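cache lookup: miss for this entity combination. No prior model stored, computing from scratch. Input as submitted by user K.M.:
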Amino acid sequence: MHTRMIRMTRMIVPILGATLALAAVPVWAHHAFAAEFDVNKPLTLEGKLTRWEMINPHSWFYIDVEVTEGEVIQWAVEGGSPNQLIREGVTQYTVPVGTMLVVEGYQAKDGTNKAVGRNFTLPDGSRLFLGGSAAGARTK
Amino acid sequence: MHHRFISSGSIAATVIAMSLLTANPVAAQTPDPTPVAGYTVPRTADGQPDFEGFWSNATYTPLQRRDGVAGEFYTAEEVAASEARAAERESAQTVPGTTADVHYDFTQFGLDRSQSTLASSLRTSLIFDPPDGRIPPRTTAGERIMAQREEQARLRGGRFDAVENNQLSDRCIIMGGAGPPMMNMVYNSNYQIVQSRDYVMFLIEMIHDARIIPLDGREQADANVRQWMGTSRGHWEGDTLVVETANFNGKNPIRGSTENMIVTERFTRVDDETIVYRFTIDDASMWTRPWSAELPMKKTIGPLFEHACHEGNYGLYNTLVGARREERLAAEAAAALKSN
């Protein structure tokens, strides 16, 4: 089933290329993300947040992606360490379950419905800044 | 290291487990810093300089002085400009389809150093001795050890061939924030210091270690006791806390160090916001001379949050299972080619 999703996302990628370029340089990775995820499998997922695991070393977002009407696939998307978010007052309720998210990233090498979330945006196109005001300020 | 994670509530049990011996102070080679004019170092109920609280050593200052940089210090303006450039680099863009792009966005998760309490320094490098700001040359024996390590790594196979071939940080065993020396991390460079009369504890946010250091004058542990973070003994020299650590297990080299490394750390509170942290690495098995570095610890907000990085985390599993799948696909492709 996810094969179809990948085909779909590959079509979307060129359109969203400009927004992908907004992503920031990772200066340090806890583990080798390029080993976990496939640089040749970029994807864009749009779906509803169903669960957010704020666990270390990395948080995981679970989103339900509706492929066709009534057909939903759950994707697990890896994000950053939650500690700094918690320090800044971000909790799992800050981005509530049910929020529609657009995630640009790369699929896991094992071929399952897992991805690294390169960039998170809301459906209106605004970038989801989970972190503090400093990051937000830089974009204004 | 997580196997030895000790909560503050377990201090008593740890105390009992440690043998009572006497201290072996080493004279400082560089004079300790003094508090800024007009600042009186606060005291604990026991009369010790009060270091309790939450501290960050997040910094953009490199460990070693960069090529082309002369002098031990920048001006304040130069540091501000340098930090601004570093913050910009940290939040800069990656090119889609490149390896660097396969990562979550630091800035979105609030992980850029500029979003943390930054421990700024005028130094051009953390290393201040040798005066060139660089790690000294290796000894001949040290070069041989490095070559042996490379050969051993080669024999172990590829990084993704086995769990044990991954970095200790990948496996959540230990990270550089714990040390000793306690180096700055890219994020979560946060520490909590708790003091009692006979012990000081450093809780290290990344990745959940606690150093519980006796101050009661006992001797260093027996050389047969080998630990990830070594065994530490502390004492006061004036208002400076001195911690000496030996008995490393040698499995977590600091810039190539061996199990013979001796680390001497010195903590001096110089103002309400700052502890100056200095350390000296002495490992004659690896380097031709000791080397010393200084980085500030700046007061930050608490509490620390549990990091609980765990061996067997999803990332490690995903990495290995991905590697196995790629191997299988390659084998199938090779078999198909052969059968044709």
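stored under new cache key. Chain B touches chain A through 59 residues (CB under 8 Å).
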